[in-house]
Amino acid sequence: MSDTTDSKPVLDSSDLVAAIPYAAYLDIRIEQADDGEARVYRMPYRDDLIGSPRLPALHGGTVASLLELAMQFEVLIAEAQTRLPYPVDFSIDYWRSAAAADCWCRCRLIRSGRRIAQVQAECWQEDRERPIAFARADFLLRAVDGASEAE
C-alpha cells in the first residue's frame, strides 16, 4: 500500500521546518500516517527541483537533502530534551532515478544515546515497495548552547 494517500499533516511541524531555511525552501512536510506507526516526510514536486530535464528526474541533491533533513527532524522530534543533531556521518544509496513527482521518506531511529544518534531512512515516490534511495546517518547530539553533552 502506498503512503501517498493515507497520511495527514503533523500540525506542529511548520515552526520546525521554518527554522531550517533549506527545509523551508524544499517545502518539506512532516505528516503522520493514519496507521499511527511513524512519521512520514514529504517533499512536494516542483519544476525547479529537476536536475535532468531530459528524463526528467529530480536532482540527486534534493533527494539526499530530504533524507538528511528528515533524519535530523526524526531525532529532534523523538528526543525528550532539546539537543541539536549535528551530522558527523552520512551515506546514501541511490537505487533508481527520482521521477518528476512528490518524494516520501520514512525514518527509523536506530539508537539515541547521550551523545550520538543513529538513523536510517528510505525514500520512495508512488510506491513504497519501490524505493528510490536509502540513507544512514550518525548525529552528534549537542546541547542547545552548542556544548557537547557530558557523559
If you had to describe this structure to a student in words, what would you say it looks like?
With 151 residues, the chain is an alpha+beta fold. It has one domain: Hotdog Thioesterase (Thiol Ester Dehydrase, Chain A, Roll), CATH 3.10.129.10. It is 20% helix and 40% strand. The protein has 3 helices and 9 strands. It has helices spanning 14-18, 21-26, 60-78; strands spanning 7-9, 29-33, 39-43, 50-52, 57-58, 83-94, 103-112, 116-124, 133-143. The strands form 2 sheets. It has a 7-stranded antiparallel sheet with strand order 1-2-3-7-8-9-6, with helices on one face. It starts with 6 loop residues before the first strand and ends in an 8-residue tail after the last strand. The model is unreliable at 1-5 (pLDDT under 50).
**Estimated helix fraction:** 10-25%
Along the chain, the helix and strand elements come as EHHEEEEHEEEE
CATH architecture: Roll
Instruction: Give the assembly state of these chains.
Output: single chain
Q: Could you give a short account of the major beta sheet?
A: 7 strands, antiparallel
User: Please, what is the average pLDDT?
Assistant: 87
CATH topology tier name: Thiol Ester Dehydrase, Chain A
Q: Enumerate the strands of the largest sheet in spatial order, edge to edge or round the barrel.
A: 1-2-3-7-8-9-6
Described by the principal axes of the CA atoms, the overall outline is globular
Overall number of domains: 1
Q: Report the span from N to C terminus.
A: 43 Å
**Helix and strand composition category:** alpha+beta
* Name of the CATH class: Alpha Beta
Strand content: 35-45%
Tally the beta strands: 9
By DSSP (H or I, 4+ residues per run), the number of helices equals 3
Radius of gyration: 15 Å
- CATH superfamily annotation: Hotdog Thioesterase
State the low-pLDDT regions, or none.
1-5
Protein name: Thioesterase superfamily protein
Organism: Salinisphaera shabanensis E1L3A
GO molecular function: thiolester hydrolase activity
Pfam family, one: 4HBT_3
